[in-house]
Design a protein that fits this description.
Oligomer: single chain
Strand content: 15-25%
Number of helices: 23
Distance between the termini: 57 Å
Structural class: alpha/beta
Radius of gyration: 24 Å
Largest sheet: 8 strands, mixed
């Protein structure tokens, strides 16, 4: 009896929804959907492809970008050990499988994420592979279909994983410009950086029955808000009711729905000529058509370089970035800029106080300034939601960015937020899609964009204002894919490991300068920004002018092309090269 037990386990499965004991072959014939209750079991990427594409049409794209452990990340296990374990348990090289195929005879490029591989997390390799699939779709003039299943960005790759949100989004933007259809199919679960970028910024967003999607996960929302969540929160039906998806589709109908959408697209007018694809930029200087240098290379900063900030422990820097006396966006608008005129509202019914923006002058030049606003006192922090923007805040920022482009004004953003608002109402109003739209729009905005991380740069809430031609960072600011406390709670036994997590995440300005995430570190007075705000403002003003002036005369098309090159560098190829520089 004992000898046959493993075979018995293979023959039967227990439904996670109704606990029914199901004959495995019958369940597989039903596409892993429980015939008793309709529960849709999670699928690996290979099985998902078998269900969707025409037999014999599948052609897998190369799936082994260069190995990269850019941060030398170690929690209770070294990151390379976790990768080895994921590969052994799934049989996959990474957390996504990319291919070309036909669906009902319609050619497509596909990128299918697999939650079994480190929670389907978005790292540099995954971002590179999905971007290559999008570039293949552009080259072949075919639609791109994305099947998402992810817990979010990969913590072990720090801010570099955050950059993948912009890298993939700009590949989506290129397909949009070429008139090629992009479709995402949300499966269970789709959260974090994936939800706040390519999962929701495609032309069509479908949700498989039973899927859950949101920017913040339910556990995080409960911990932060202390509130019970509504029935069916973040489920496919919830998303449909709140206007965040085009349709909810049963698994047995998904292939047919995709066929119908692809057929309608093919029947339409011919697609426009493609936008030339840009290869990853090298370490050389970026040069305009007229030979003028637009930006210096963002190669590693050698220790001891002139102007290199003094090394401070990462956890001490985190506490410095959060200091209540640290200058805020409104402080800088008063001390760095002149004549600020604030503009309010998202034009859809709300005005988020965590985002301030409007027209100002910088050394006599008009600019659009947008930033997160925290405050100094408890009352101010509460009134501004601690600088955590709601969807209306991101949409207000989006409106001002687009206005700046129409008026020909440069955009300056000041980033200081622990992250986007994780509340229930924010999820109901489409937080992930609001962030995704900002990221996508910034990749194509035809006016100079200059971003400054002034305090905390937290996750997608920060990136929503930081897809820029040049990214500056104050010396005692931090920029990360997740807070040290959040990282410690997930990868270490408890939150007391937050100082260790801060060091492992490489979230300080010198670290991010070496990794190429930021272009310049703006030094603070020897004590800190909050001890000498006037001197800090003087240094920031000088840095803004030095970085903005070379961008003002660059033609919009070149500006956008170079911005895309900047973020395309963050694929696995570049990260692998950087890993060898340390």
């Amino acid at each position: 009896m004992t000898a046959t037990a493993p075979r018995e386990e293979q023959l039967w499965s227990r439904c996670a929804g109704c606990a029914s004991l199901l004959y495995r072959k019958r369940l597989r014939r039903n596409l892993d959907v429980c015939p008793e209750c309709g529960e849709h079991a999670r699928l690996g990427a290979p099985e998902r492809l078998r269900q969707l594409v025409d037999p014999g049409s599948l052609c897998l794209l190369p799936d082994r970008p260069p190995e990269a452990d850019p941060l030398d990340f170690v929690d209770v296990l070294p990151y390379p050990h976790r990768l080895t374990g994921a590969r052994a348990s799934t049989g996959l090289a990474e957390g996504v499988v990319c291919a070309t195929a036909t669906i009902g005879g319609h050619p497509v490029a596909l990128a299918v994420m697999d939650f079994r591989f480190l929670g389907g997390s978005l790292g540099c390799a995954v971002g590179e592979l999905i971007t290559r699939a999008a570039e293949r779709a552009l080259d072949d003039r075919t639609p791109l279909v994305l099947i998402t299943a992810s817990g979010g960005a990969r913590m072990q790759e720090g801010a570099l994983s955050l950059m993948q949100m912009a890298t993939v989004s700009q590949a989506i933007a290129a397909l949009r410009e070429a008139g090629l259809l992009t479709v995402s199919v949300l499966t269970d679960p789709t959260y974090g950086g994936v939800a706040a970028s390519f999962a929701t910024n495609t032309d069509l967003v479908l949700a498989e029955s039973g899927a859950r999607m949101g920017f913040a996960g339910p556990r995080v929302i409960r911990q932060i808000t202390g509130r019970a969540l509504p029935e069916g929160f973040q489920t496919a039906d919830f998303l449909l009711r709140h206007g965040q998806v085009d349709m909810v589709v049963q698994r047995r109908s998904l292939r047919a729905r995709l066929m119908a959408l692809l057929a309608a697209t093919r029947a339409g007018r011919p697609a426009r000529s493609p936008v030339p694809r840009q290869e990853p930029a090298s370490h050389r200087e970026r040069v305009a058509d007229d030979g003028a240098v637009l930006a210096r290379p963002t190669g590693p900063v050698a220790e001891g370089d002139a102007g290199t900030p003094a090394v401070r422990d990462a956890w001490d820097t985190v506490r410095m970035a959060r200091h209540p006396g640290r200058p805020t966006t409104l402080d800088y608008l008063d001390s760095v800029f002149d004549g600020f005129v604030e503009l309010h509202g998202d034009r859809l019914g709300a005005d988020c106080p965590a985002i301030v923006g409007g027209v100002a002058r910088l050394a006599g030049r008009h600019v659009m300034v947008i930033g997160h606003q925290k405050g100094h006192t408890t009352a101010e922090l509460v009134a501004r939601n601690f600088g955590m923007a709601s969807p209306s805040g991101h949409r207000k920022a989006l409106r001002l960015m687009r206005l700046a482009a129409r008026l020909g004004l440069p955009v300056v953003t000041l980033v200081d937020t622990p992250g986007a608002d994780p509340g229930v109402s924010a999820e109901e109003q489409g937080q992930a899609a609001a962030i995704a739209e900002n990221i996508l729009t910034l990749t194509v905005l035809p006016t100079p964009v200059l971003a400054v991380i002034t305090g905390e740069g937290g996750s997608g809430g920060a990136l929503a204002l930081a897809v820029a031609d040049r990214v500056l960072m104050l010396e005692n600011a931090v920029y990360s894919v997740i807070s040290p406390e959040g990282c410690a709670a997930i990868l270490w036994p408890d939150r007391s490991a937050a100082p260790q997590a801060a060091r492992a995440l490489r979230l300080t300005a010198p670290d991010l300068r070496r990794l190429g995430v930021v272009d310049e570190v703006v030094s603070e007075p020897s004590s800190a920004a909050h001890d000498d705000p006037a001197e800090t403002a003087h240094r920031l003003r000088a840095a803004l002018l030095a970085n903005l002036l070379p961008l003002l005369d660059v033609p919009p098309a070149i500006l956008v092309r170079l911005r895309r090159q900047r973020f395309r560098r963050f694929g696995a190829n570049r990260v692998g090269a950087r890993a060898g520089l340390r």
